[in-house]
Structures are given as C-alpha cells and as structure tokens.
Amino acid sequence: MILIIEDDLVTCHIITALLKRMRFSYCEAHTGAEALEHLRTRPIDLVIADMMLPDMNGLELLEMKHSMPHLADIPVLCCTSKADIETVEAAMGFGAIDFVKKPIVVQTFTSRINRAMERAPTRWESWREMSKRLPFYSRTIQPMLVIAQQMLRELDEALAATENVSPNVAELNALVMRVRGAVFNVGALRTVHQLDRLWTETADKQAIEYLRAALVIELAAFDEAIAARATSEPMQAAG
Amino acid sequence: MECWIPASVKADRTEGTFDMAPSGAGVRAPLPNPPGDDLGGVPNANTIFSLFGKKPPPAERSFSSAPRSNGLSTPPVDKQLAAQLAAQFDSPASVTDETDRRSVDLSVLNMLRSLHDDGDSFVNGLVSTYLTDTVTRLTALRHALNTRDAKEVAQAAHAIKGSSANLGVVRMADLGGALQGAGEQGDFGDAALLFAEMEEEFSHAQASLAEAATRRYSAA
After folding, report:
1. Are the beta carbons of A106 and B114 separated by less than 8 Å?
2. Record: contact A8-B163, CB cut-off 8 A
3. Confidence check on the interface: ipTM exceeds 0.85, yes or no
4. Among B47, B62, B68, which would you mutate to test the A interface (most chain A Cβ atoms within 10 Å of its Cβ)?
5. Which CATH number fits domain B97-219: 1.10.150.20, 1.10.510.10, 1.20.120.160, 2.30.130.10?
6. Which of A41, A123, A214, B58 is least enclosed by beta carbons within 10 angstroms?
7. Predicted structure pTM score
8. pLDDT digit string, tens, across residues B4-53
C-alpha cells in the first residue's frame, strides 16, 4: 500500500488517479499528523510525500518516521516544487530515495513510482512461489493465515504482559521463534523480517516496544490478506 | 470452521498487495478444511508443516543478543545522487510561447484526461476542486496581507502555485511563485501588487478553464 501525503487536493486527486491506473492500493493523508497515524497502523510499502505540509514540513515528518525503527526502512519518494541540496541530503539521511519535481508529469512520475516500489520491502511471498512450496496452497492458505495471525496476537499479548511482570526470556524467545515459523510458512516475508531485525534474545524493553509497534501493522496486514483471500477466486492447486 | 470477515473488501490485482475498502456489513465465509485435519486449536509451525508432509524450515537465524541503542543504523547519504536530484530544481519550468500568452496550458489538461477512463469528468472534478480551493486561498492571502503575516502569505501563495502548476494554469503558478518569494522576504509592497495581479489573472483562468472544457466537449 502506498501512502500519499499531500495537502493540496488537486495534486492528491492526480496522484490517486495515477496510482489507480497503475493498480496500486493507496491511502491518503493531508497533514503530517494524519500521515503518522497511517504509518503507525497500516501496512505501508512506500510513502509519496509533499515537503510542505500545513502542520509540519516534510523533513520533520521524515525524521519522525526514521526515528521509529519498525518504519525506518519504508522508502520515501519526495514530491516537491522546490528543494535545495541541503534539503535533499537531509531527506536522504531520513530515508528519502528520490525527489520528483512538481508539477507532475505523468510519464516521469509513473517511472519514478515503479522504480521506488522496487526498493519497497517485500511484504508477501509471491503466489507462484507459495504454490510451489505448498502443494495445497489454494485450499489451505486461508486457515493458515488465520492461525498465523492468532499466533501474532498471542505474541503481542505475551509482550504486553511484560509491562507488569518481568519477562521469562527463554519462553519469549521460544514463542517468537514459533511465531516466526508460522508467519514464514504463510509467506509473510515482511513480518519475518520485522521479527528478525527488531527482536533481541535478551528481550530488553526497547526490543519489546519496537516489536509491539511493528505487530500493530503486521496484524493489520494479516487482516487485509485474510479478507482479500476470502473474496478472491480460489486458485488452482499447484502440482 | 468459520471466520468473520468484512464484506466490502477487494483484492488488488497487484500480486501480493491488498486493498481494504471502507468497512461495511460482514459476511460469514466458510473456510475449507485442509486435507486430513480439522485444525482444532492453534498448532505451532511444526504442526502446520506436518499437514503437508514437509519439514519446517531450519532455524535460519538466532536473534541478536546485543541490546539495541537506536534501532537501525543509517546508511551514508550518496552526495553525488543528492546533487543530481537537487539539480532538477535549479532549472525553471519551460513554457512554450503559446502557453506564455495563455492562462491555461491545454496540453496539461489533455495529459490529465488520459489518466482516467472518464477523462472529461475527471478533469472537470479537478477544475471544480481547484476553483473552490483557490477562492479560499485568495481569501486567506488577502487576510494575511492585511495582518502582515509573511509566513501565511508565503504558505498560501505556495499552495496556489502548486495546484495551479499541476492543472496547467501557468500564469497563476508563476504569480504564486513570485508571491511566495515576496512573502518569504517579507516584502509586503511587492506582495500587494502581485496579489492584485493574481486576482485579475484568476478571473482569466476561470474563463480559460471553462472554455477548455467546452472546447473539449465540442471536439468530442
């Protein structure tokens, strides 16, 4: 999902029309605060950001995003009419990968979005790969997604419980490994990646905090995947 | 086994991405059981793999035991790439002689029409949004000039510049850029002159946009 951060409605409508035509899913934010809320709660793969927003400037927003480790690797495509070298360098330090000059030129913008999406973290293993790995993929993926999501919830509850009681580190590590296996099995590559990079064997408070923040988004991604699979045509079983 | 899912959900055709429509009424969707098992309870990863007669993937990593200070390291900024990206903002947007004389660059409107199956309705919607927004912003600009709020002048002018440029309303975009500069420098004398020019130009732009829409319909 692509997050569009743009306060000008005309520009926002043009970008959304372009993304629809490119068959990308998207959500919109018109202020920095709205953008941060989307980033905290939805599975965002790429951010297209205006550099001048009513409540904060683009650099402030990028800095806030970058300070949250579970969001730091989401690439940002900056879309602006004016930028100097200092702004570009600072933005790149906070995760910007490209700058597109306004006004929007459809052909240029399309190719830059495609290029930026290549840098986006892979959220799900492709259907083709999944079908090769799991012969009964088409019939069984739905319940497996539900089970994996339930395990993610249990992990979140276990991590939440550590706020009041000191954690049993060995149990938590074992639970994280079990959850990792379950989400790996359903091809949730982004969830696996987040577990790998945010969790530490010492189960320190910071790791727990970061992982819980990431789990909010991963659970939302599972919600969307389960719902989408339930309404899509069943795939033919491979093999 | 059943699960509760929202009804208004559609799958994006892009492989591996999903789009959830605004929540609506739910439907109860039956889920097929996997072969030979009813999945009672929540099994661990080994149980899931055993359903398919396959072994689970090996433990590919052990989690780091080192405590984290600030999460992630930041890669060094590619200064050469930054300079290349910044260079595109040095050159002013080129306008043809023809668009120099006109309020609206028609080629931009045609490009925007191509974005949508119903291009005329799409562009008309954009124009309508633009006109409404610009009226509001001109009011804000007048108020900012009266109260000598330089920051607000620059912000409102910047907004007019951006939306005008994206819709091909070239003169308004130019005036917006100039007015933004005057606001940033706190030059209220210059800003007042530019504002008067902008108000006059906006009435021309309205007429040109209406004419552009009419011409398109008659051509069709």
Report:
1. yes
2. yes
3. no
4. B68
5. 1.20.120.160
6. B58
7. 0.77
8. 333 333 333 333 333 333 333 333 333 333 333 333 333 444 444 444 44
